[in-house]
Write a structure and sequence with these properties.
Layout (H helix, E strand, L loop, with lengths): L2 E5 L2 E3 L5 E8 L8 E6 L6 E6 L5 E3 L7 E6 L4 E6 L8 E7 L12 E5 L2
Parallel strand pairs: 2-10
Antiparallel strand pairs: 1-3, 3-8, 4-5, 4-9, 5-6, 7-8, 9-10
Amino acid sequence: QVQLVESGGGLVQPGGSLRLSCVASGFSFSSYPMAWYRQAPGKERERVATIGAPGGAFYADFVQGRFTISRDNTLNTVYLQMNNLKPEDTAVYYCNARRVPSFEPWGQGTQVTVSS
């Protein structure tokens, strides 16, 4: 069974940094592109960043230059380094394979709150 466990969120001031982690199991992690998504209250879930199976990253325009996605296939883990955080980055962050359909169930996510 697929399991996705996100962690690393928290409360941070504008301009601060956080590093999110997502440990995946139940599928061949190294074979799939992975992505981070986020969902703010009252909004649709949106994709933030994607990393290919061998590497190669792509970012949404609204995080370009501030966020970095990486992966460790030996640990079945994908990371999201978030710098220069803004209040509009406040959301629950999720990871999943970049596939259609996404793996189910989604993890519980990790809450990121950017506020002074």
